[in-house]
Write a structure and sequence with these properties.
homodimer, mainly alpha, 2 domains, 70% helix, DNA-binding, 149 residues, Multidrug-efflux Transporter Regulator, Chain: A, Domain 2
Chain lengths: 149, 149
Amino acid sequence: MWLGKEEMGLSNLDESIEQSSLKSNTYTISDLAKEYDITPRAIRFYEDQGLLRPVREGRQRVFSEGDNVRLRLILRGKRLGFSLAEAKEIIELYDMDSGDERQLVYFLEKIEQQRLNLQRQQQDIKAILQELKRVEKRVKRELQEIRHK
Amino acid sequence: MWLGKEEMGLSNLDESIEQSSLKSNTYTISDLAKEYDITPRAIRFYEDQGLLRPVREGRQRVFSEGDNVRLRLILRGKRLGFSLAEAKEIIELYDMDSGDERQLVYFLEKIEQQRLNLQRQQQDIKAILQELKRVEKRVKRELQEIRHK
DNA sequence: AGTATAGTTGACGTTTACGTAAACGTCATG
DNA sequence: CATGACGTTTACGTAAACGTCAACTATACT
């Protein structure tokens, strides 16, 4: 069954109603595409790769709030240079289902690894920011000299 | 002319001498490859893309200390998910030659842009680290429950 | 002289992350 | 009812960043 405009009424009004309606929020593919400024194609690709698991209503994808969160994680990861496979690793931590003890310990190890990776990234950022500072000083000095004449 | 082993003498000894010999340090392609654990092919590719400018001694590449620094910048950038083109932007800031006022102002703008990008990355990292913390708590709680029984 | 060791230049292959086009289904509106 | 807006699958195309030969060259070792 379609979530057509008939059921939605005046879209603007209803959007706010939907947003505030508890948590059972659902999204169409273009909802998410617009929200994060990516193409539907990308979203379908993420599903192909097992990063999103929208429910089907007929053939159409219906995305849950969980999918929304996962997508946000994916895009954060991408901005940090993660591959989709790496983003998947984090997502799988995010929505793992509590397994046995071995599983849980394994998860803790994974988490620690991720933490270390991210901390190295923080160091890299700090290093580059310092480089930028140095360059900035140089540039400003040269500007002063030029303007002083 | 080759910097063969004849001129280098006992390599171990000479390495330390070279390292401390002021600043006119030079590197072969495999020196750098080993130092940063990448392949010569990658280094040649970076040169192709205009990120490195080794001098030629005959046909062989001779890398300067500046090239070393640039390479370090490239790899930091890569770890942060920068494309080579983006890394190049930063490198060009790093070794720009003081131009006219317009140029300098332009550089300052570039620097500010880079700073903003890096700050967004810092936010992304913070967000993911918090996610990891939450997941970690969950996992530890579940572990407690299992072990409590 | 012969072999080993580094280095060189093509040139084609590969992976990742989508873009793009074709061909089609479904509603709801004029 | 046909037209548009939005959705679908299938399949081929592409840019980036190297990997992987191949074929060659220059020095060094025995």
